[in-house]
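Human: If only I could read backbone structure tokens as easily as an amino acid sequence. Underneath my words sits a plain record pairing an amino acid chain with its backbone structure tokens. Take your time, and here it is.
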Amino acid sequence: MKFPLIALCAPLMLLTGCTPRIEVAAPSTPITINMNVKIDHDIHIKADKDVETLLKTRSDLL
């Protein structure tokens, strides 16, 4: 009667030693992000002739 009990427990004991190990660790070197970005903007404003003459004659509006 003891042999079947040992035969069932032995494989279970062997399988408990094969559990996977998960490890989370910080990297040894710092993380660097290189962002070489060049931004160019061209802004074009189109106005009516009446608005252009108004801006030229009234400098206090700028």
